[in-house]
Specification:
The protein is built from 8 helices and 15 strands. The protein is of the alpha+beta class and 287 residues long. Strands 7, 8, 9, 10, 11, 12, 13, 14 and 15 form a 9-stranded mixed beta sheet that branches. A 6-stranded antiparallel beta sheet has the order 2-1-6-5-3-4.
């Protein structure tokens, strides 16, 4: 049975879900997206994702397609209709449909789609055993804080990383790590301090990152927001990444350098357990 997709006001079967060839998201990557994880039929950190969707749209002067409460209703219905126990909900808003031109009419209305993807998130080999990340120069534009659908730099970096035997790619600029191609980067210093880059135009303000800050505080752990170098990562006690679909994932190797003893560390394990506990209790299940 095919998935149910939400397309511009209607729930339709996957095979009937269509958008115009003149949609500016298709022609110009002129749009924003969000991804919310679902575990045990619960949406994780969804209020943060909806708030970031609204912020990103505002940064490119695209109005919200509808009230936030209605978007959450649509997400909930997608979970129900697709019987999604574990996976993600993808939302995309583009500027809308108009004949191809760099300029656009003031009366253009945004396009809005949503769909689910069933996938294992919690008990994956990556989460259990850790992953290796490649290193690449950051090829992206200057406004990485906007969650745009313009992802060609990330696509190429992740393709190359996979071909080289890595799970993810870390981007580096001016000698410092910015973030992963689709994740937030962290190191744990010899003193046990968690270090991650501060929010700015250089990085995406991660929703899982924000939730993890509260978890770390509850665990009595310190997070220091600053830039860090690859040498600091190589010498770190532990390294890990976060994202909506990866939760808290240990990194056991950066480029060709093993981290610590090459196994997930105790601080990462504490954060994994605490975040998963929060995720399973913060909202009621939909199904």
């Amino acid at each position: 049975m095919s998935r149910t997709i939400f397309v511009n006001g209607a729930f339709v079967a996957e095979e009937d879900a269509k958008i115009s060839v003149f949609d500016r998201g298709f022609l110009f990557a002129d749009g924003i997206y969000e991804v919310t994880a679902v575990i045990d039929g619960r949406m994780l950190d969804n209020d943060l994702h909806i708030a970031r969707l609204e912020r990103s749209l505002g940064e490119i002067s695209v109005p919200m397609p509808m009230a936030k409460e209605r978007i959450v209703e649509i997400q909930t219905e997608l979970v129900r209709r697709n019987n999604l126990r574990e996976g993600v909900i993808y939302l995309q808003v583009t500027r809308g449909v108009a004949d191809r031109d760099f300029g656009y009419p003031e009366t253009i209305e945004p396009s809005f789609i949503g769909f689910t993807q069933a996938k294992k998130i919690v008990d994956t080999a990556s989460v259990r055993d850790g992953v290796a990340v490649d290193v690449a120069d950051d090829p992206r534009w200057a406004r990485r804080d906007i969650k745009t659908v313009m992802l060609l730099g990330q696509v190429l970096a992740k393709k190359q990383a996979k071909a080289r035997g890595f799970h993810e790619a870390w981007f580096v600029e001016d000698g410092h790590v910015t973030e992963g191609a689709s994740s937030t980067a962290y190191i744990v210093s010899k003193e046990g301090v968690i270090v991650t880059r501060q929010n700015s135009h250089a990085v995406l303000p991660g929703c899982t990152r924000r939730a993890l800050q509260a978890v770390a505080e509850e665990q009595g752990l310190t997070i220091e927001e600053r830039r860090f170098t690859l040498d600091e990562a190589y010498d770190a006690r532990e390294v890990f990444l976060t994202s909506a679909s990866s939760l808290v994932t240990p990194i056991i190797r950066v480029a060709r350098r093993s981290i610590g003893d090459g196994k997930p560390g105790p601080i990462t394990r504490r954060l994994q357990a605490a975040y998963l506990e929060l995720a399973r209790t913060q909202t009621a299940p939909i199904l």
